Amino acid sequence: MSARPPNGGASATVRALVSHLSADAPVDMAAEKARLDDFLTHHANRYSFAGDDHAELLSLLLKRRFLARSEGPRSVPADQRLRVLQALRVLLRDRRQHRAFVSAGALDHLARVFAACTTDHFRLAGGPGDGDYTSEMLVEVLSIVKRFAGSGALLARTRTGGADAHADGRDGEPSDTACALLEGIALLLRSPDALVLQCALVALVQLARHHAHREDLAQLDCAEPLLRILADYDTGFKNLAAEACSHLAREPRFARALSSGDGLGVVLSLVHSEDSRLALCLLHTLEALLGDSERGAEVSRELRHLGGLPLVL
Questions:
Q1: Exposed, middle or buried by CB within 10 Å (0-12, 13-18, 19+), for 258?
Q2: What is the pLDDT of residue 159?
Q3: Which of 47, 138, 224, 302 could be stapled to 93 by a disulfide with Cβ–Cβ 3.0 to 4.6 Å?
C-alpha cells in the first residue's frame, strides 16, 4: 500500500468542494453535504489556509452560497446553511482570508444573518424545537465575529453632524454592521442556551478590548446580565463576565450601571475567590469603578460601608 502524501486527504477535500461549487448543474444537496462534511472533518484542527485553492474555495462559498440571492435563504435546508457557516468559520481562522470576506460584503450580510438568528433564538426559546439549527448558527456567527474584533471594517467610525455632534465624547458613529453585531451580542447575554451564552461572552471580551467597541457597548444594557452571570453561573462563565467587566468598566456609563443597586456587592463577594483569574479581573473592575470621575467617590464610600476594604486588601 503506497503512502499518502502529507495533507493529501485534506487537499483532496478542498479540490472536491471547489469542483462541486463551480458546477453550473442544479445543486445536489446530498453530494454537497458529503463534501462539506469531508472538508470540515479534514480541517478541524487547521489554522493556515494560504493557498490559491483556499482563496478560490472562500470566493465560491461566498458568491454561490452565503451571498446568493437568487433563492430566498429559507429555501435552503437549515443544516446546509449551517455547514456553509462552519466552512467559512474554518477558513476565516486565517487572517489572510479576512480581506476577501470583507470586500465581498460578507461581513454586512453576516450581521443580517446574525440579527435574524438572534430574533428566532428568543422566539423559539423553550419551544419544542423544529430542527432549525438557530442556536448552532449563532455559535458559528459568533465564532466568526470575534475574529473581526480588531478589524478596521468594524472599528471604522463615521462622523456626522457639526462640531457639537459628539458632545458625549465619542469619536463618531459606528457602522450599521458594527451596531447590529454589538446589539445582538448584548441581547445574547440573556440567552438560555449555555453554548450560545459562552460564545457571546467570548466575542464580547474580544470586542471590549478595543476602545471604539467599548464606547458603543457601554450604551447598551450589558451590566445587568453580566452581574447576573457573576452571581449565578459557574466559574467558567464568571471568568468571562468578569473579564468583560474589567474592560467595559473603563467607560463611565457602564461603570455607573455596574456599581448601582447591588452591583458593587456582587463584585465584592467574588474578589476573594480562589480562582486567581476571576479575582484579578474583578480587582481591575473595582479599580476602574473607583477611578470614575463622576461616581468614584461614591463608590469609595459604598465600598467602606460594605466592609470591602479588608476584602480588597
A1: buried
A2: 58
A3: 47
Cβ within 8 Å of residue 20, ≥6 positions away: 28, 31, 32, 35
Close Cβ partners of 285 (under 8 Å, ≥ 6 residues apart): 242, 245, 246, 249, 258, 267
The number of CA neighbours under 13 Å toward the Cβ of 198 is 11
What are the two backbone dihedrals, phi and then psi, of residue 188, each rounded to the nearest 5 degrees?
Answer: -75, -5
At residue 225, the pLDDT reads 97
- What angle do helix axes 263-271 and 235-248 make, rounded to 10 degrees? 120
Tell me the CA end-to-end span of the chain in Å, nearest whole number.
Answer: 68
Phi-psi domain of 4 (left: phi exceeds 0; alpha: psi -120 through 50; beta: other):
beta
Q: Which three cell numbers stand for residue 306?
A: 460594605
Average pLDDT of the chain is: 86
Q: Tens digits of per-residue pLDDT, 26-48? A: 889 999 999 999 999 999 999 99
- Residues near 269 by beta carbon (within 8 Å), at least 6 away in sequence: 231
Q: Are 88 and 109 in contact (CB under 8 A)?
A: no
Query: Which among 121, 144, 122 is positioned nearest to 61, based on CA atoms?
Result: 144
- Rounded CA gap, 270 and 272, in Å? 5
Q: Which amino acid is at 139?
A: V
Please give the model's pTM, rounded to 2 decimal places: 0.88
pLDDT for 163 equals: 42
Q: At 146, list the grid cell.
A: 470575534
The partner residues of 158 in beta bridges, in order of sequence, read 173
